Amino acid sequence: MGSHDYDFSVNTQQQVIETAERAREASHALALATRAQKDAALLAMADALLSRSEEILAGNADDVARAEADGTPANIIDRLRLTAERLEAMAQGLRDLAGLPDPVGEVVRGSTLANGLELRQVRVPFGVVGMIYEARPNVTADAAGICLKSGNAVLLRGSSSARSSNAAIVAVLRDAAESAGLDRDVVQLVPGDTHDSVKALMRARGHVDVLIPRGGAGLIRSVVEESTVPVIETGVGNCHVYVDAAADLDQALAIVLNAKTHRTSVCNAAESLLVHADVSDEFVPRVVAALQDAGVTVHGDTVFAGQDGVQPATDDDYSREYLSLDISAAVVPDLDAAITHIRRHSSGHSDAIVTRDQAAARRFVAAVDSAAVLVNASTRFTDGGEFGFGAEIGISTQKLHARGPMGLPEMTSTKYVVTGEGHLR
Amino acid sequence: MGSHDYDFSVNTQQQVIETAERAREASHALALATRAQKDAALLAMADALLSRSEEILAGNADDVARAEADGTPANIIDRLRLTAERLEAMAQGLRDLAGLPDPVGEVVRGSTLANGLELRQVRVPFGVVGMIYEARPNVTADAAGICLKSGNAVLLRGSSSARSSNAAIVAVLRDAAESAGLDRDVVQLVPGDTHDSVKALMRARGHVDVLIPRGGAGLIRSVVEESTVPVIETGVGNCHVYVDAAADLDQALAIVLNAKTHRTSVCNAAESLLVHADVSDEFVPRVVAALQDAGVTVHGDTVFAGQDGVQPATDDDYSREYLSLDISAAVVPDLDAAITHIRRHSSGHSDAIVTRDQAAARRFVAAVDSAAVLVNASTRFTDGGEFGFGAEIGISTQKLHARGPMGLPEMTSTKYVVTGEGHLR
Fold first, then answer.
1. For the domain that residue A132 is a member of, what is the CATH number?
2. Average pLDDT of the segment spanning B112-127
3. What's the gap between Cα A186 and its chain centre?
4. Are strands A153-157 and A187-189 parallel, antiparallel or unpaired?
């Protein structure tokens, strides 16, 4: 099994469509599977990740060796590397999914119409989901689990640097799904590891219901622009913290530091700081000193650049997602200028205001159109886990279908069920 | 005013983007408008359609004259023609919208997290919506009204055959919106009436938040395939009625006739009939006779083709949306064969089963993955008006965001509002 399930020799487009058609076939039964059946499969998958850890770690060792031979930076290799501990975390993720309610079958709304027809809107799986992702091989198990629990067959296309890890993980998951009575084709790798297979996936409209790219801005942009399959865009975050005239400045300082430095490589980290002019004399020196103490480079406007060590900011800085110990910073004359700045530069992920002024908070919340708008809280809270969703497939920064952290319900569509007794128009 | 608002001479792409940017600017204030302000604008728009009916009818007369000179078929000209009565219906549509609840601001879900953060998911407008539509000029007022009520600025691109009607209607609606205190740019025509302007709209990603094509299958397919702006696909319906072994055959006959003949040009009309083999001896002759009496041509399999006047069906017939007094028909050996046939041929709009058997109904509802699945009711009920939505922008046949009839809530996105008191991770 494993990579032997696939023959990479024939035409990629046709292979991808055949794979998607196997997924479609498997999705029919999976859509009708009970929660008990799906949870049993998730637990079997968790067990198999551990009982067959040797072959997964062997596959991963191949990927790590290849990356080392290619001169890949140490931090990337660290993300690629699997350990017994990381496999246990992957297994625990699958067990956690088994503990979550089944989104499929939930009645979203229902009523009896004037003519006696019974109307119900019910959650159903999408059908076939394609995942295109970079980086860590643990996403392979996470995505497979979330798709299975939400009743979707999944086509996984990880990065080619993790191909042996992913092939081994998927082989294990498929065997476990089958042992639990499901069709093994509910989880499949996309055949081929050149860009052709990504392209084929993006063009498989009608065969694949939804594509979810997870990774850097470049990957997401290319999928969004080239795909004819409907896409859910995830994760680019140029997040702002705006410190209002009426802010508690101690609180503001703590929020800025937390949002910027708690973890820099994530999409909900703050990348830009705006400060109301009324408090800039007091706050700018304090926040610059605190950020610099934490190792952050500040790219500031003329006011900020008056502080030692602050780099002058270009317009580009204000639109950048640094994902590093850097932050852009500017002083704004008032709340509306902060809103205008955010409208211009924000990626629509998470933007925060720090203020004790109820009217300012209300205006900021209403006028800033982002997936999450936070009042007196760190941008780091925009997260499926923090929101209590139990599982997260990504954070949507688009407005269609799902916006913000996506849990299990966001991995479903709905259908209307209309029941009558011979009703005619 | 009217078409004079636009200068068609410069580069189309740039013009469309400039128009979208005016819409974006107008959308900021519209998103914050109260229901009272929006309802006042809708009522002013309704009044203006009637008080300025002369200029609208004059514009329409130009379109009708041009269509007649081009030799356009009479039924198309009838759809293009506006009358005092049709203007009154358009005005009433806007008044009805004023009576509906405002979707914006609705709290979809909310909770207090373990750490005391307050989480609310709130409906917000998309921002800028693009409508591409064919046919009747009344869609211009309907779409403008639905977008306004849901807080969205709209860019309207009707068919060029209705350009003078649409320009006159939009000029009237813009004046009325302004008179009610809104920015007139909440409603705009897309400049240009060549295909270039449609193309420019489809490529205006980042400037336009959602595109909704309404019209024939060809229009919708081209928008879905070419657009980089997210699209909500509407309206192609190859709808089935399956008559089960356990059907009440009188009821089945009435449902087939209603679904096929009540109105043939609509997406929720039945296009295909499946009959369980156990009742085919009795039902096939009855249904063929009744359909033929109603003027319907039956395109049937070998069993149906045994009846006088039935045309032999090709595989293509089973996938066709006739939109006419034609129906494809086949006998199936059992319920699962009906489900398999529907999976293969249905457009995923509306499919119905007629049966007294609870288990058969349950299995059909679970296994048929269409926007609406009906039990013992005509497919004609899949409709925003019938479902009690009060307004409908179209019927989505895609699985992302909205599926089935789309009312006002489906014209919104959501955002998360997170409120704390200095919360850090």
1. 3.40.605.10
2. 97
3. 21
4. parallel
Q: In this structure, are residues A274 and A240 in contact, taking their beta carbons and an 8 Å threshold?
A: yes
Residue with tokens 């229902």, as numbered in its chain? A110
Give yes or no: residues A315 and A188 share one domain.
no
CA A11 from chain center: how many Å?
A: 31
Contact B415 A369 (CB under 8 A): yes
Q: What is the C-alpha separation between A402 and B230, in angstroms, rounded?
A: 13
Q: How far is A120 from chain B (nearest CA, A)?
A: 10
At position A69, the amino acid (one-letter code) is: A
How would you classify residue A272: left for phi > 0, otherwise alpha for psi between -120 and 50, otherwise beta? beta
Buried b (16+ CB within 10 A) or exposed e, A6-37: beeeeebbebbbebbebbbebbbbbbebebee
Q: With beta carbons less than 8 A apart as the criterion, state whether A274 and A332 touch.
A: yes
What's the whole-number mean pLDDT along residues B356-385?
A: 97
Q: Is there a single domain that holds both residue B184 and residue B266?
A: no
Tell me the residue range of the domain where B369 lies: 239-381
A229 and A84 co-located in one domain: yes
Q: Which helix (H) or strand (E) holds B24?
A: helix B12-32
Query: Which pLDDT score is estimated for B250?
Result: 98
Dist. CA A63–CA A6, nearest whole Å: 19
Q: Do B375 and A228 touch (CB under 8 A)?
A: no
Angstrom distance (rounded) from CA A394 to CA A391: 9
Provide mean pLDDT across the span B52-67. 97
Task: Let me know how long chain A is.
Answer: 425
pLDDT in tens, B86-108: 999 999 999 999 999 999 999 99
**Kind and range of the H or E element at B312?**
strand B311-312
CA distance A145 to A44: 11
Distance CA A171, CA A189 (A): 9
In a domain, B82, yes or no: yes
Confidence label for A3 from pLDDT (cuts 50, 70 and 90)? very low
B377 to A415: CB separation less than 8 angstroms, yes or no: no
Contacts of B363 (CB under 8 A, 6+ apart): B335, B339
- Report chain B's C-alpha Rg in angstroms: 24
Nearest neighbour of B377 by CB, restricted to A117, A388, A401: A117
Of B224, B365, B418, nearest to A377 by CB-CB distance is B418
Residues of B in contact with A404 (CB under 8 A): 121, 414-416
Q: Does the structure show a pLDDT above 80 at B3?
A: no
- CATH number of the domain within which B361 lies: 3.40.309.10
Inter-chain touch B420–A376, beta carbons under 8 Å: yes
In a domain, A300, yes or no: yes
**pLDDT (tens digit per residue) in A221-278:** 889 888 989 999 887 899 999 999 999 999 999 999 999 999 998 999 999 999 999 9
Is the same domain home to B295 and B361? Answer: yes
pLDDT reading at A4 higher than 50: no
pLDDT band (50, 70, 90) for residue A134:
confident
Instruction: Find the CB nearest A262 among B117, B228, B425.
Output: B425
Quick one: B33 and B181 in the same domain?
A: yes
State phi, psi for B413 to the nearest 5 degrees: -105, -170
Rounded Cα gap, residues B328 and A321, in angstroms: 56
pTM for the full model?
0.93
For chain A, what is the domain count?
A: 2
